[in-house]
């Protein structure tokens, strides 16, 4: 039982490049979300999904895209990377919408140069 | 607008002392208040949570105190240990409505417990 798996753990991108951050969970959780963590800013919600085929925007969605074709996977796409997207990204999942027991992945540290 | 305000930003406590972190919120629709603990290089992990129908919840050395009228809640760590050194986040969410399940986080408190 791996929980929430994020890949890669580290990534360096050049400005303008695109990439996909992967997130997979094996707990059959319906609710999945992406957060970014910046010093002094806490965790800010980028996008979230309440089930396969259903996604919605969070607080800071600009420059990011998501899709949810299966219950297990929730990839985050950076369309055209910018230095302002340098951050640590966390994927999280929960078995229901009531926020019981969110499980976080170990994060992806992204640097855009 | 920040939904959950957390203080202090950093906290240094001597081993064996009590660590206290405070959070405040405005939205009275919030009905779930968790605390997360994060060690360097790791993702946040759920530590303890409370619902507004109780004023206090205790799990081992960790206690949440909740004041519904003041819209404040706090985390108390009794007999603080060096292994408690981490970043702590408070959060809040609502159990109904269009934002069902969304967690709003405070900005975090970096706790250092020195021997």
Task: Give a written overview of the molecule.
The complex is a heterodimer of chains A (113) and B (115). By secondary structure, chain A is mainly beta. Chain A is built from no helices and eleven strands. In chain A, 0% of the residues lie in helices and 51% in strands. In chain A, strands 2, 4, 5, 6, 9, 10 and 11 form a seven-stranded mixed β-sheet that branches. A four-stranded antiparallel β-sheet of chain A has the order 1-3-8-7, with no helix packed on it. Helix content of chain B is 0%, strand content 51%. Chain B is built from no helices and eleven strands. Chain B has strands spanning 4-7, 10-14, 19-25, 33-38, 45-50, 56-59, 62-67, 72-77, 86-92, 104-105, 109-114. In chain B, strand 4 and strand 5 form a beta hairpin. The interface between A and B is medium-sized, with 28 and 22 residues.
Task: Provide keyphrases for this structure.
heterodimer; A: 113 residues; mainly beta; seven-stranded mixed sheet; four-stranded antiparallel sheet; 11 strands; 0% helix; globular; B: 115 residues; six-stranded mixed sheet; five-stranded antiparallel sheet; 51% strand
Structural class of chain B: mainly beta
Overall geometry of chain B: globular
What distance lies between the first and last C-alpha atoms of chain A, to the nearest angstrom? 36 Å
Q: Please report which band the strand proportion of chain A falls in: under 5%, 5-15%, 15-25%, 25-35%, 35-45% or over 45%.
A: over 45%
Count of extended strands of chain A: 11
**Oligomer class:** heterodimer
Radius of gyration of chain A: 13 Å
Task: Give the helices and strands, then pairings.
The complex is a heterodimer of chains A (113) and B (115).
Chain A: E1 4-7, E2 10-13, E3 19-25, E4 31-38, E5 42-51, E6 54-57, E7 64-66, E8 76-78, E9 87-94, E10 103-104, E11 108-112
Parallel strand pairs in A: 2-11
Antiparallel strand pairs in A: 1-3, 3-8, 4-5, 4-9, 5-6, 7-8, 9-10, 9-11
Chain B: E1 4-7, E2 10-14, E3 19-25, E4 33-38, E5 45-50, E6 56-59, E7 62-67, E8 72-77, E9 86-92, E10 104-105, E11 109-114
Parallel strand pairs in B: 2-11
Antiparallel strand pairs in B: 1-3, 3-8, 4-5, 4-9, 6-7, 7-8, 9-10, 9-11
């Amino acid at each position: 039982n791996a929980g929430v798996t994020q890949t890669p753990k580290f990534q360096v991108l050049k400005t303008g490049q695109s990439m996909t951050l992967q997130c997979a969970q094996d707990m059959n959780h319906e609710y999945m979300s992406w957060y970014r963590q910046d010093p002094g800013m806490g965790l800010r919600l980028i996008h979230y999904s309440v089930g396969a085929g259903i996604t919605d925007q969070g607080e800071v969605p600009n420059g990011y895209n998501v899709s949810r074709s299966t219950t297990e996977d929730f990839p985050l796409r950076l369309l055209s990377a910018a230095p302002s997207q340098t951050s640590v990204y966390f994927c999280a999942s929960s078995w229901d919408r009531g926020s019981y027991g969110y499980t976080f992945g170990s994060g992806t540290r992204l640097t855009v140069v | 607008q920040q939904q959950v305000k957390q203080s202090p930003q950093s906290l240094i406590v001597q081993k064996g002392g009590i660590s206290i972190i405070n959070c405040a919120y405005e939205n009275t629709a919030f009905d779930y208040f968790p605390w997360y603990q994060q060690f360097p290089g790791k993702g946040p992990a759920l530590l303890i949570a409370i619902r507004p129908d109780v004023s206090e919840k205790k799990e081992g050395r960790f206690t949440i105190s909740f004041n519904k009228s003041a819209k404040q809640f706090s985390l108390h760590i009794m007999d603080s240990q060096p292994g408690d050194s981490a970043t702590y986040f408070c959060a809040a969410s609502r159990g109904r409505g269009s934002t069902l399940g969304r967690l709003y986080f405070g900005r975090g408190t970096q706790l250092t417990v020195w021997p």
